[in-house]
Write a structure and sequence with these properties.
The complex is a heterodimer of chains A (276) and B (273). Chain A is mainly alpha-helical and 276 residues long. Chain A has helices at residues 10-34, 52-64, 74-90, 93-98, 100-116, 126-132, 135-150, 160-166, 174-186, 193-198, 200-208, 228-232; strands spanning 215-218, 268-271. Chain A has twelve helices and two strands, in the order H-H-H-H-H-H-H-H-H-H-H-E-H-E. Chain B is built from 13 helices and seven strands. The chains are: A mainly alpha (276), B mainly alpha (273).
């Protein structure tokens, strides 16, 4: 048994910071480009062009008319495909390793942990929470339907991701700023509230968790059922109760694994079927 | 097979950036929309009507930046300053020689939104005026020109029928009490800034949203309240897909977008209280 101290999945933090900074710089460069002051060698694409969810909401229009939804470009489709490849292999790792909005919620949550200690991320009773988790599929259905009917980004005015990187431009709807503010505020008490309850893209990627090649697997024979993996899961998944985590909410952060929090070597791992 | 965090992190980076690089190599990575390049590119006419600018070393309209002044653009592309001033309806108290493209929003506040006059409008105007090759690109909104600019281009530039149709679709109507367009074309005595700016140039948008333009879809018309029967009567057939642009429908069916647009706008205007 290894020492009962949590090891940091440091590369995940590095990538989260990297992607956050990258997207922030691209957003800034997009504005600078309009003023003839673009930073060389850095993309000045719009945020919509580097958002893989743009590809998802454009699918219907692309299939029926052959065009993209307003403001969406071919790069969004490419990113959508790349993230789908990752999701088929590893599930929703995009959410846990790449998405800047998820990262920001996580970082705000670190402050919340200090404020609320053990109550942090456990405010909402499980019997209610388990149903709330499906709200994001309602959101997904609405976004896809509204976008398909109008050909416009129905999600745009409430998108906290867009608001996060453009709040300083005056180009963000008030509703977007409000949603971002509420998300960050709630992040103090609940880890990744937007991801858990609202995010339509997380809903899409969560489906891949049901059949991804790799998934979180628990070795029943060596597990001591200490449930620390469950307590440490940002998405409140009862890892210690299952042998394979096929939960649509898992973000593949690996924080529950023996590499991080699990005190028994090779007991909770990210692996393919048959390796346990 | 088990995978550790370091391996997973590396794979994520490789898939995302490797995929982007691969797409770039294949020419699939496009973060901006290039609209109708074949229709708008005028490379075949370079050298015929562009005068000196068409020769070796001519500036490219794509190089026009937001911080370029009208005076600089006038010199670079050999376009009379007065023509630029008139095309973009500069107010009387603005010195056209030092006015910058990035300052458009200071004189057209009412255009904020879907219809916008910006640096792309200047590139587009210069390209058509000089017949220099240029692919109209815009990553956010469609590129519009003011009515005076369109009139100048129609009178001066060698436009194709498709380009004229495009201009008609992307024109912002304004009222300008001024000299006829013919009076400000090259070869004529240019007016002074004071003369041209003395007129009260009142810029009006018909409505914030309900303007039939090139990017208007059938869904937009239906959302505005135009009956489906009325639309289908005007276009002479069933709406194939509500997400389709009216402009594209007209192009595919050999219809004049200008005519259809006018009729549809009349129907839309009936709905405006």
């Amino acid at each position: 048994m290894k020492s009962f101290t949590k090891n940091k999945i440091w590369l995940r933090t590095v990538l989260q910071v990297f992607f956050f900074v990258l997207i922030a710089l691209i957003a800034i460069n997009h504005i600078l480009e309009d003023r003839g002051m673009a930073i060389p060698l850095l993309s000045n694409a719009s945020l919509h062009a580097v958002c893989p969810f743009g590809g998802v909401v454009s699918l219907y229009q692309f299939a029926t008319v052959g065009t993209f939804t307003q403001k969406i470009h071919q790069s969004s489709f490419i990113l959508m495909i790349l993230v789908f490849i990752l999701a088929i292999l590893f599930g929703s790792v995009f959410c846990g390793w790449v998405c800047p909005l998820g990262s920001v919620q996580e970082w705000v949550g670190k402050l919340g942990k200090r404020l609320f200690k053990k109550r942090y991320n456990h405010f909402i009773p499980r019997r209610i929470d388990q149903y709330l988790r499906y709200l994001r599929y309602i959101m997904l259905a609405w976004v896809l339907y509204a976008t398909a009917m109008t050909g416009k980004l129905a999600f745009g005015d409430i998108d906290p991701y867009y608001a996060l990187f453009n709040f300083w431009t005056g180009d963000v709807a008030v509703t977007g700023l409000i949603v971002l503010g509420v998300t960050l505020l709630v992040s103090l008490a609940v880890e990744r509230p937007w991801c858990k309850y609202v995010c339509p893209y997380g809903a899409v990627l969560g489906i891949f968790n049901l059949f991804s090649v790799f998934s979180i697997r628990r070795g029943e024979s060596t597990c001591k059922s200490c449930d620390i993996c469950t307590r440490d899961c940002p998405m409140n998944i009862p890892v210690h109760e299952v042998n394979v985590v096929r939960d649509h909410q898992c973000i593949g952060c690996l924080e529950c694994t023996s590499e991080a929090i699990c005190p028994i070597e090779n007991t909770v791992v990210f692996a393919t079927k048959g390796s346990r | 097979m088990e995978i550790r965090s370091k391996t997973l992190g590396v794979i994520i980076v490789i898939v995302i950036f490797g995929g982007i690089m691969g797409a770039s190599v294949l020419g699939l990575w496009k973060t901006i929309s290039v609209r109708n390049p074949a229709r708008l590119q005028r490379s075949e006419s370079v050298g015929e009507t562009a005068g000196e600018n068409a020769g070796t070393g001519a500036y490219h309209p794509a190089d026009i930046r937001g911080n370029h002044q009208f005076g600089e653009i006038s010199e670079m592309f050999d376009i009379p300053l007065e023509t630029l001033s008139r095309a973009f309806a500069l107010p009387a108290d603005v010195d056209p020689a030092t006015f910058k493209n990035q300052e458009f929003d200071t004189i057209y506040p009412e255009f904020e939104g879907e219809q916008e006059i910006g640096n792309g409008s200047m590139k587009w105007f210069v390209a058509l005026y000089t017949s220099l090759p240029f692919e109209l690109e815009d990553d956010e909104e469609d590129t519009y020109l003011l009515r005076p600019a369109v009139d100048i281009l129609k009178s001066h530039a060698d436009l194709t029928a498709e380009q004229i149709a495009y201009l008609d679709a992307y024109t912002i109507e304004i009222e300008v009490e001024s000299e006829p367009v013919e009076n400000i074309l090259p070869g004529d005595e240019p007016q002074t800034s004071a003369e041209s700016g003395g007129e009260a140039e009142v810029i009006e948008r018909k409505q914030d949203e309900m303007v039939v333009a090139g990017k208007t879809t059938f869904a937009d018309l239906l959302d505005w309240g135009v009956p489906v029967e009325q639309i289908e009567a005007l276009i002479g057939g069933e709406i194939p897909n509500r997400l389709m642009r009216v402009y594209d429908y007209c192009a595919e069916n050999g219809l004049s977008f200008g005519d259809i647009k006018t009729q549809l706008q009349a129907e839309v205007d009936k709905l405006i209280p």
